């Protein structure tokens, strides 16, 4: 074994046969590709100061989560000729995703994300909305605490929810 580090999915390894693979518990191979077929890497911030690493190959993409920065630097040492792209943590930057469902209650945030996602090849496909409704519990509580004065200001309403399904071109 030339390289062997832990990820959330299992051990990320480079074998003596020059393949890059992920071994889960009980030596079950989850994913494997010849090292010559690896074409690049994309890193995104992960949990606990680690990376979510997307490995690009001639056949597909594979995502390994919780790869420490030190272990990724060691992996890069085995592929010095390959480019690494750094993406932020937004869902639309994740190259491993081809579909995504997002629910919005903030109209401005929805508009910003739809526009930004479009720059990365995402297209909104379907959307559904749920109208707002009077929140009786919140209205009654506010009325009780203010002696009924809050009822003059109107009932408490929940925000309208819009769910959008995105696909990547």
Task: Give an overview in words.
The strands form 3 sheets. The chain has a 4-stranded antiparallel β-sheet, covered by helices on one side. A 4-stranded mixed β-sheet has the order 7-6-5-8. Strands 9-11-10 form a 3-stranded antiparallel β-sheet, with helices on one face. It is of the alpha+beta class. It has 2 domains: 3-89, Roll (PH-domain like), CATH 2.30.29; 99-168, no CATH class. The protein has helices at residues 69-78, 107-118, 136-146; strands at 3-6, 11-14, 19-23, 29-34, 38-45, 51-57, 61-67, 84-86, 99-104, 122-130, 161-168. The model has no long low-confidence stretch (mean pLDDT 86). The longest helix has 12 residues, at 107-118. The protein contains 3 helices and 11 strands, in the order βββββββαββαβαβ.
């Amino acid at each position: 074994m030339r390289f062997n580090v832990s990820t959330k999915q299992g051990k990320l390894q480079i074998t003596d046969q020059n393949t890059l693979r992920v071994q889960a518990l009980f030596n079950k191979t989850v994913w494997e590709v010849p090292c010559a077929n690896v074409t690049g890497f994309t890193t995104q911030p992960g949990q606990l100061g680690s990376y979510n690493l997307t490995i690009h190959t001639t056949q597909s993409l594979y995502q390994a989560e919780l790869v420490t920065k030190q272990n990724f630097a060691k992996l890069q040492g085995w592929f010095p000729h390959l480019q690494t792209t750094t993406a932020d943590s937004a869902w639309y930057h994740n190259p491993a995703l081809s579909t995504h469902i997002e629910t919005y209650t903030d109209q401005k945030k929805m508009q910003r994300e739809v526009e930004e996602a479009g720059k990365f090849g995402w297209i909104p496909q379907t959307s559904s909305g749920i109208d707002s409704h009077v929140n009786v519990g919140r209205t009654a509580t506010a009325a009780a605490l203010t002696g009924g004065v809050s009822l003059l200001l109107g009932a408490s309403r929940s925000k309208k929810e819009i769910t959008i399904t995105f696909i990547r071109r």
